[in-house]
Structures are given as C-alpha cells and as structure tokens.
Automatic annotation (TrEMBL):
Annotated binding of [4Fe-4S] cluster 1, by residue: 216, 219, 222, 276
Function: Catalyzes the conversion of epoxyqueuosine (oQ) to queuosine (Q), which is a hypermodified base found in the wobble positions of tRNA(Asp), tRNA(Asn), tRNA(His) and tRNA(Tyr).
Catalytic residue positions: 162
Enzyme Commission number(s) from the entry: 1.17.99.6
Annotated positions binding [4Fe-4S] cluster 2: 226, 242, 269, 272
Protein name: Epoxyqueuosine reductase
Organism: Polynucleobacter sp. UK-FUSCHL-C3
Gene name of the encoded protein: queG
Source organism phylogeny: Bacteria, Pseudomonadati, Pseudomonadota, Betaproteobacteria, Burkholderiales
GO cellular component: cytoplasm
Amino acid sequence: MHSQAFSSELHNQLEGIRSWLDIRAYELGFGQLRISDTDVSEAVPKLASWLAEGRHGEMGYMERHASLRAQPEQLQAGAIRSICVTMPYLPQNSSKTIEEQFSAELARLEQSQEAVISLYARGRDYHKILRAKLQILVTELEEKIAHLQSNEGGLQYRVFTDSAPIMEVELARKAGLGWRGKHTLLLHREFGSFFFLGEILINLPLAVDEPVEPHCGSCQACIDICPTQAITAPYALDARRCISYLTIEHPGSIPVEFRRAIGNRVYGCDDCQLVCPWNKYAQHTSVPDFAERHQLGSSTLLELWSWSEMHFNQRHEGSAIRRIGYSRWRRNLAIALGNTLASDLDIQSKEDITNQLRDGLQNADLLVTEHITWALEQSQR
C-alpha cells in the first residue's frame, strides 16, 4: 500500500464510493455500515475511571493497551476514518418469531438440567468470519480506488474484529450504528443488539455519519434481570460480577458468592439482551456459519459433561468456545451441575448427576476438582 495523498478527483468520487460500500456490505451479510472519525476522546475518561476501579477484573490487556484504545491512529498510521459495521448473528428459526425465541431461551434458564450457552457462541467463531468479510470489502475497495486513480492513489487500512485494543463501541456509537444501552452494549431501535461489530481504520476521507439519539428512557429491564447485579448503575458494568466474564474471561476459581447465580449458564449470559424491549426488532442473520452446531441450544448439562477433552476440541473446532479450554469448560459445567443438585430433582436424577461428578474427579485438575467438590456439596442444601 502507498501513502501518497489522494487527489481531488478521488474526493469527487467519495459519494459514489460510499453508496457502493453500503450495497456491498449488505451483500456480504452486514446489517449496517456507517462512518466515523477516529476521535474517541469523549470516552477516554470513563475508560480510565473504569480501569482505575479495577472493574476490568483479570483482563489485564485492557489496562496494558489503554493508551492505544485512546488513540486509534496509533493502530494504523494515517487513519482518519473508521468504517464501522454490524453483523446480525441470530440464526433463523422458521417455527418461532423473535419474541418466541427469546421466551424459549428465558424458559430454559428455569430448566435446571439444561445447558445454556450464549446465542452468539453456538455457531462458528465470529472473529474469523467477520474478519474475512471485512477483508473482502476493503480489498475490493482498494481495487475500486486504484481503478479510479489509475493506480496513483494509495489506501492504508487495518481490519478489526474484537481483535485489538480499539474502542469499537464508541466508534460505532459515533458512526450512528446505535447508542450505548444501560447494559453498556450497543443498541439500535431497528436492529436491537444481537449483532457483532467490526471496523476498518482507513485513510480515506469519507463523509462521517451522525450519532443517533439514545432511547432507553426510564426502562431498566436489563439492570433488574442481571443475576449478579453486574450492571451497578445505568451505563456502568462491573465485569468482575458479569457471568459472561466469569465463565469466559476469568481464568481461575469462580468466586463462591456468584456460583448459585450462574445457574445453568455454561458459557456467557444473554439475560440483559433477552429482556430488552428493543430486541423485538432484532434481525436474523443471513450468514450460514452462525447456525447452531452440535445441538448447543438444546443439550443437557450431563450430555456436555460426558464430552472428553478430545470431543471438546473436535466439536468446538472453529468455535469461540474452544479458546477457554477444556478445564474452564468443565469448571463451568461443574457449577451448573451443582446448582442442578440444589434444585428440586427426583432421586434418580440426583443420583445420576452425583455419580457423574464423582467419576469426573478421577482425572480432574485442581481447578475442576475444587468446583466438583463444591457441586457435590450442593446436594445437601
């Protein structure tokens, strides 16, 4: 890529380029495409305060790369714009409406022997899918500009998909892809929040889009439903209390104070999104890779507990879940099975779970042993 200045001829073509970007993004499966500048200074003080309070937990990378998050141009020299996109990830379900799907998901949380895995993680790893599609988009854009410029112009860019220290929600908010909801996720009146974000930092001076007005109003459904009270105030999240953090990012022993609240959630938590009124407008994905695999939306806890490490690696190949590793997977399942033992079960079911947990002690590491031991103790509650 070259760093030559863009000519006035190219500037005259920017409006046409933007129209092409919108069309091509839709063809690739993106929901929205908007443009922002790279100034995130408005969000920097809040990030600094969040880090200073230790609310990032053991996500040390958040603190190590704080300066890069504050200055996106350090991630890509010459960047003056961020092409921001969303990609819906809810798979199609021909027999249920969106609201019926969400009701069914909430109902499964009350079925103690069922294993609940966050909706976004039931298909293939979004990092690879979004990155590949963003790369297609920017490669075609580069070719289009090269044609317009007779190869005299130069494009500098870098693609991001939750893969580098970039304040993607802030860039997306500035671009008009939504507002930051009280749960801190990006939220849109016409698309809800069940989508992934991606960015391309670029040196192309495209016109920027305007932010949208927030529309949470007095609603606090997401705050009220949070099992661990991780949303400590509107627009304030303590990751150390969040079930998604605890079951995915947290590497060690899960604090005892949160184990019962985790319930039968094995990987992540969707509660705050499932009750959000705006998600009645959530969109289904057009990307086949996000379709559910290996019955992850209907498996029981004991079915997943029966997986060997080989099964775990094979069945989660190409999945975001695989990165937590087999030990954390078993840790999470042990907590969920312990909560099942504490629920109203028939004698045979209790016996089956107890026997499976005891068998699991034979080859368990220290982390899993601790959580199995706790789980077995719950049958006495």
